[in-house]
Amino acid sequence: MVAEGDRNDVARHRAHMPEGAAAILDARSLATAHRRLAALLVPGLSVLDVGCGTGAITRGIAEAVGPDGRAVGVDVNPALIEKARAAHGRVPGLTFEVTDAYVLPFDAVFDIVTAARVLQWLADPLIAVRAMTAAARRGGRLVLLDFNHDKATWTPDPPPSMRRFYASFLRWRTGAGMDNEIADHLALLMAKAGLAQITTTEQHEVTHRGDHDFETRAGIWAEVAASRGHQMVADGAISEGERRSAELDYRAWLRGDAVSHTMYMLAVEGVRL
Question: What would the DSSP string read from start to end of 23-62?
Answer without folding.
Answer: HHHHT--HHHH-HHHHHH--TT-EEEEET-TTSHHHHHHH
